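Quick one, probably user error.
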């Protein structure tokens, strides 16, 4: 009888431990979307910094790293997710297109209010294709805080951007323009010759 009681306690303990593990693994995910995109040189790739499965998000901070030989960061705007909880104070990150980073992007709700639950977009980034190649777009130094300023567990998912050679080279339109001007000049000479003869 005692043995079956102990077995029942062990089984119940095992269930609680495994349940706790399952809940611990169900943390928020900060991801870059789309996970991959392809553009031409001079074109723009829009990359969202999204969050999913978060509870009570009050503030966040992160860096974004990229290959400066392939893309350049051209803009960064606040997403709608944290704004859904109230007034925010958004700080765009410092852009370094030589080193390939957008550092210290931060945002926080203002006032003694609860954080935001669920999924949505934290930030919208724009990159311009500089030269053909593929670069990873990586999240770094990510911090998520709840309304009590406790850290929120999370995982991250990075992305990549492939830049292909651009369409029509810039020299071709000027070559066509010269050809057109040459033809107009020839027609003008031909008419002048006809008029004098």
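Nope, works fine. Designed sequence:
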């Amino acid at each position: 009888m005692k043995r079956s009681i102990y077995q029942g306690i062990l089984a119940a303990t095992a269930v609680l431990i495994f349940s706790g593990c399952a809940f611990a693994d169900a943390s928020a995910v900060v991801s870059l979307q789309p996970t991959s995109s392809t553009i031409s040189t001079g074109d723009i790739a829009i990359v969202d910094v999204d969050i999913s499965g978060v509870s009570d998000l009050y503030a966040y901070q992160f860096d974004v790293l990229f290959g400066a030989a392939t893309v350049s960061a051209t803009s960064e705007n606040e997403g709608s997710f944290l704004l859904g909880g109230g007034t925010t104070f958004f700080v765009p990150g410092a852009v370094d297109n030589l080193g390939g980073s957008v550092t210290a992007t931060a945002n926080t709700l203002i006032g003694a209010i609860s954080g935001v639950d669920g999924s949505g977009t934290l930030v919208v980034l724009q990159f311009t294709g500089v030269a053909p190649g593929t670069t990873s777009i990586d999240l770094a130094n990510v911090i998520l805080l709840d309304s009590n300023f406790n850290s929120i567990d999370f995982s991250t998912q990075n992305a990549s951007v492939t830049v292909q050679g651009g369409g029509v080279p810039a020299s071709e339109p000027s070559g066509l323009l010269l050809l057109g001007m040459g033809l107009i000049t020839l027609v003008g000479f031909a008419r002048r010759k006809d008029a004098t003869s």
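The mean pLDDT is 82.
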